């Protein structure tokens, strides 16, 4: 089914979409059945709910931070558990995408070789460096936000906006592989894309320095997409994961700059 099979957006938004999105982007034991062969509606049409998945993940992490704070644990320890919760809930799929893109984009000289490296389950030097830098940066930013009492107002919008960025990349970049998770999921129709972007924008409006947060998110989304187009001529599931990580860090940086000033 392609976009033309969804006339007037009649099937654009369904309550079950959140379950499909959670089943795809988290490791929660949900009966999503997103890729059932009998399903007449592509899983990508549930992409409008991706920012809501970010909401679920971030709220869970914030609740853990509140609990640990109530027990008197210091901010650095709370921040470590916040990251651990997000990693456990998502199965580290976004971190894995970031590492694979770092290895593939800079470890191969041709498009074919880059895609081959990205598919390899082993992690290379570029991937390790990307993961270490991203995790340390997130840990430091979250620690500062906890100390400032601004974790909720930063982590939740960042998680939602970064997943809206994934949907934009899904819709605007061609698929680089003939197989894989991104190919199975499909391409979001315009209503799904607009829904995800609208939810992401609404979340961003509640942040400190909301204009800067939106601008940074747009720039990083486009920059990551341009890089993926130049390196592999499109997007894969790894590219979507890398987009989420990069945009989330950008949002946290932007929000921190205003919230901590």
TrEMBL record:
A GO MF term: adenosylcobinamide-GDP ribazoletransferase activity
Essential cofactor(s): Mg(2+)
InterPro entries cross-referenced by the UniProt entry: CobS
Reaction catalyzed: alpha-ribazole 5'-phosphate + adenosylcob(III)inamide-GDP = adenosylcob(III)alamin 5'-phosphate + GMP + H(+); alpha-ribazole + adenosylcob(III)inamide-GDP = adenosylcob(III)alamin + GMP + H(+)
Pathway(s) this gene product operates in, as recorded in its UniProt entry: Cofactor biosynthesis; adenosylcobalamin biosynthesis; adenosylcobalamin from cob(II)yrinate a,c-diamide: step 7/7
Keywords: Cell membrane, Cobalamin biosynthesis, Magnesium, Membrane, Transferase, Transmembrane, Transmembrane helix
Keyword field contains Membrane: yes
Transmembrane segments: 46-68, 123-142, 148-171, 192-222
EC number, UniProt record: 2.7.8.26
Keyword Transmembrane: yes
UniProt topology in membrane: Multi-pass membrane protein
Subcellular location: Cell membrane
Family to which the UniProt record says this protein belongs: Belongs to the CobS family.
Role according to the record: Joins adenosylcobinamide-GDP and alpha-ribazole to generate adenosylcobalamin (Ado-cobalamin). Also synthesizes adenosylcobalamin 5'-phosphate from adenosylcobinamide-GDP and alpha-ribazole 5'-phosphate.
Name this polypeptide is given: Adenosylcobinamide-GDP ribazoletransferase
Source organism (scientific name): Sulfitobacter porphyrae
Name of the gene encoding the protein in the UniProt record: cobS
């Amino acid at each position: 089914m392609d976009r033309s099979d969804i006339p007037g957006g009649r099937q654009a938004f369904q309550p079950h979409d959140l379950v499909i999105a959670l089943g795809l982007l988290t490791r929660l034991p949900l009966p999503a059945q997103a890729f059932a062969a009998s399903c007449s509606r592509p899983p990508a049409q549930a992409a409008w709910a991706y920012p809501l998945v970010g909401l679920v993940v971030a709220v869970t992490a914030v609740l853990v931070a509140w609990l640990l704070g109530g027990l008197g644990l210091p901010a650095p320890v709370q921040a470590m558990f916040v990251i651990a919760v997000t990693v456990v809930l998502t199965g580290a799929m976004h971190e894995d995408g970031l590492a694979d893109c770092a290895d593939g984009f800079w470890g191969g000289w041709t498009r074919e070789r880059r895609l081959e490296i990205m598919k390899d389950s082993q992690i290379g030097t570029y991937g390790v460096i990307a993961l270490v830098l991203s995790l340390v940066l997130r840990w430091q930013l979250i620690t500062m936000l906890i100390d400032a009492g601004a974790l909720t107002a930063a982590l939740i919008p960042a998680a939602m906006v970064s997943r809206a960025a994934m949907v934009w990349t899904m819709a605007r970049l061609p698929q680089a592989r003939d197989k894989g998770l991104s190919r199975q999921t499909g391409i979001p129709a315009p209503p799904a894309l607009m829904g995800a972007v609208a939810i992401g924008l609404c979340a961003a409006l509640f942040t400190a320095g909301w204009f800067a947060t939106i601008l940074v998110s747009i720039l990083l989304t486009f920059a990551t997409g341009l890089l993926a187009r130049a390196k592999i001529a499109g997007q894969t599931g790894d590219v979507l994961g890398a987009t989420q990580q990069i945009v989330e860090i950008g949002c946290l940086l932007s929000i921190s700059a205003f919230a901590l000033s």
